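I need you to check the entry underneath: sequence plus fold tokens. Let me know what the token row says about the fold.

>
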Amino acid sequence: MISPTYDFEHFAKQVKNKEFFEIISLAEQEATLAWGRTYRREAAQDGIAMRSMEYQSKLLGLIDYLRHSIKPKEVDQQDLALYNLVCARAEKSKQSACR
């Protein structure tokens, strides 16, 4: 897992220089791992489940933003800036719908 602490900023900074399809693949893998951790017994006890679900939502939002240029409804300015950071390289290679 790229960010075991469910830190979307950390994830974005780690993948920002990767190729478009690799970013999507990593985001999908990360969201799946976070989803799996949501339902562990210790997740409910430590409040990890809520952080994991928020992280999943941000990752899925990034995937939609990359693929379709769809900005999630409830994205804040900080996360939008991170989406754009990740999209910068993908735009240069003309593989992304980012705007």
